Amino acid sequence: MATQPGRILLVRHGESEGNATRTFTANTEVPLTDLGRRQARAAAEVLRRDFAPSLVVASPYSRARETGEIIAAQLSVDLLIERDFREQWLGDLRGLSYDCVSADPTFDPARRWEWRPPNGESLVDVQRRVAPALQRLAVEHAERDIVMVSHGGVMLAIWAHLEGGWEIARPAGNAAIVLVENRAGTLGRPRFVHPGGAGKDVATLETGG
């Protein structure tokens, strides 16, 4: 009898205070807004209703960690923190408006994934650390449904990794859920199962944190 595949359910954190003001977070402890907490609870309800998650893994940054805590509590499962799922480091742009990206003469929107903010990471850099961590997670938790809570840039990097190209990677709104089948460590193509919040948080980079 064929083994039922596991599923990795990628969840972007709920709206953060940085998303609400359209500014890149100045530090890693910027919390969710009240709307963000409601979005996290709504995502948890979708996960509880349609899937059977046995674990939540989250980025250590407050907005993702808090989203993970809300989801884990509603599902009555454990929460683990994985440092490699942290968001793209924006370096000197921390605390600045999303609009500052388009003003940077080195930014090419047609190849935004290659752009590196001053003293920060490119999305390609993010993919280099996230893809191996995702693969470890897939191997360690094959045949299980698990939830991975992270960030816009991380999810964009994962989408590009799984589809084999940045041009077709799709940005995720706050508390969006993306399903990836996991067949003994071999990951399938991503697809949205819950659209998440409105697009106001999607920055020029198509992440916004």
Model description:
Helices cover 32% and strands 17% of the residues. The chain is α/β, with parallel strands linked by helices and 209 residues long. It has a single domain, classed as 3-Layer(aba) Sandwich (Rossmann fold). Strands 1, 2, 3, 4, 5, 6 and 7 form a 7-stranded mixed sheet that branches. A hairpin with a 2-residue loop joins strand 5 and strand 6. The longest helix has 18 residues. The termini are far apart.
Quickly describe the structure.
The chain contains five helices and seven strands.
Highlighted features:
single chain; 209 residues; alpha/beta; Rossmann fold; 7-stranded mixed sheet
Strand and helix map with partners:
Layout: E1 6-12, H1 17-21, H2 34-50, E2 53-58, H3 62-75, E3 78-81, H4 123-140, E4 145-150, H5 152-163, E5 177-183, E6 186-187, E7 191-194
Parallel strand pairs: 1-4, 2-3, 2-4
Antiparallel strand pairs: 1-5, 5-6, 5-7
Helix pairs in contact: 2-3, 4-5
As a percent range, the share of strand residues is 15-25%
Can you tell me the number of structural domains? 1
Radius of gyration: 16 Å
Which blocks of ≥5 consecutive residues have pLDDT under 50? 199-206
CATH H-level superfamily title: Phosphoglycerate mutase-like
CATH class term: Alpha Beta
N-to-C terminal Cα separation, in Å? 42 Å
**Main β sheet profile:** 7 strands, mixed
> What is the second-level CATH architecture?
3-Layer(aba) Sandwich
Which whole number gives the mean pLDDT? 93
CATH topology: Rossmann fold
Instruction: Bin the helical content.
Output: 25-40%
